[in-house]
Every structure is written in structure tokens, then in C-alpha cells.
Amino acid sequence: MVADLREMQENQRVSEIRIDKHEFVSQYGRSLLGELSLEAGQNILDLGCGTGKLSGDLAAQGATVTGVDSSPEMVERARKNHPKLEFLVADATQLPYENTFDVIFSNAVFHWITDQNALLDSIFRALKPGGILLCEFGAERNTGHIFNAFQEEFNKLGQVFENPFYYPSPQEYSGLLLAHGFDIEFVRDFDRPTPLNDGADGLRNWLAQFYTASLTKLSVDNRDILFSRLEKCLKPLLWDGEKWIADYRRIQAKAKKPIDA
Questions:
Q1: Domain 2-256: what homologous superfamily?
Q2: Pairing mode, if any, of strands 245-256 and 183-195?
Q3: pLDDT digits (tens, 9 = 90+) for 42-74
Q4: What pTM was estimated for this model as a whole?
Q5: DSSP readout, 61-74?
């Protein structure tokens, strides 16, 4: 009974971390907005809107913004944060729109979506002719030190690690965009070492958000063992004495649906 209660409390803690602990995601997304030439009245879809922070930024510049996320919990939070905006729960690979948006903007979402062909077909349909896709997400070798260490230590605990992420190279993603009818303005990748919040607990909190599916397969005791082992092996690589620095690599893409499409 005590063990069950501890498990429930730990799972609740993981859920709360997923929403509240990673403000840097939207902060970095704001810099991407500078790639847009926004005009009042443009119809914009924030794809994977989360709690709606970037949706609010876009609306403040005069755009008509719709936010979409697959998480009902996130959409509920977004509606509370921005009651004047429209938010709905939807699958990014099956958007209920056709020739609707001037811009589809997405930050830190595409690496969670395994069916990229369905995703790009869905986005292409939802854009107006001449509409813009602007996105940023994890690039090839994103958080490579963490990823490799997690896989190794997770397997040592008798589990089979299943990679939940899609991290492409610019060449791979350029090929996908072209195959789905887009004209490319740019596709680029770059390093972005990213400080994690909460000092010594930063790595654990980050793992609780991004490796949730794997961690829920472990008992609370085995999670603690895993976290301790990861901190030990990653400390020489990612700890700066005060905080953890995740070895992020990002890919950004800006592409257009042809005007005659």
C-alpha cells in the first residue's frame, strides 16, 4: 500500500514537471518568431501549442491565432492562460483544416512525431497557397550524451529502450519537404547548449519530462538508481559546477506551399 502510494506520488510529480519546469522551450521559440514577417490579420496555427505562451506572443502582434495540441491537459491550460484565443485538441498528422492558414508555426514538437510523411501532408493541406511553414525541433545528435547514456543504463536494468524521438539531419529533412511539395527557404542545424533549471535536480527533472514513457516502466527505486547512474556518468560532460547543460542540437526549417498548389 505504501509502495503504491509512493508510485502515485512520483507519477504525479513527473506530470507536474512536464508542464511547469521547462520554460526555456518557449523562450527559445520566441527567437524563431523573428523569421516571420507578420502582418495584422494573418491566420496562424501554433502547432503543438503547449500552454499557449507563443500563441499569445503571436496574437499580441495582431495575428489571428489558433493553437493545437495533442494533450488535453495542455489545451486546458492554454485556454485558461489565453481565454480570447482558440485552442483545440487535435492530432498534428490529421489536422481538420484545408487551405486555411497563412503560417503554421511549430516549436519543439516535430521530434515527437514518428510519421513525418503524414505530418507534412497534413500541414501542406492546412496551409493556404503561398503559406509558410516555420518550425524548430531536435536535430541529428540532439542531446547525444544524454540519449546514449540513458539507453545504456536503462538496458542494464533489464528494460528494452524504445527511441521516442525523430532527430533528422538538414539533408534528410530537406528531402522530405521537397517530396511533399514545399519550396524551401532554409533548413539549418546548430548546437544550442541549454542550461537546465533547478540546479542539481535539473537533469532528473529534464529526464522526467522527455523520457516519461520509459521511466514509467520502472519502479520508483529503479528510477532512483537510473538517475544516480546517469548523473555520475554525465557529470564530467554536462555539469558546470552549478547546473546541468544539456547538449542540445536544433534544426530549423522555413518552407512555402507553392502559390499554384
A1: Vaccinia Virus protein VP39 (3.40.50.150)
A2: antiparallel
A3: 999 999 999 999 999 999 989 999 999 999 999
A4: 0.88
A5: TT-EEEEEES-HHH
Grid coordinates representing 86 are 482558440
Q: What is the pLDDT of residues 112-141, one digit of tens each?
A: 999 999 999 999 999 999 999 999 999 999
Backbone angles phi, psi at 194, to 5 degrees: -125, 115
Q: CA 162, CA 58: separation in Å to the nearest integer? A: 36
Band (29; pLDDT cuts 50, 70, 90): low
Counted residue by residue, the chain has a size of: 261
Burial per residue of 84-107, b for 16 or more beta-carbon CB atoms within 10 angstroms, e otherwise = ebebeebebbebebeebbbbbbbb
Distance CA 46, CA 55 (A): 6
**Cell numbers representing residue 102 in the block:** 497563412
| Residues in a beta bridge with 86 | 66
**Domain coordinates in residue numbering, the chain:** 2-256
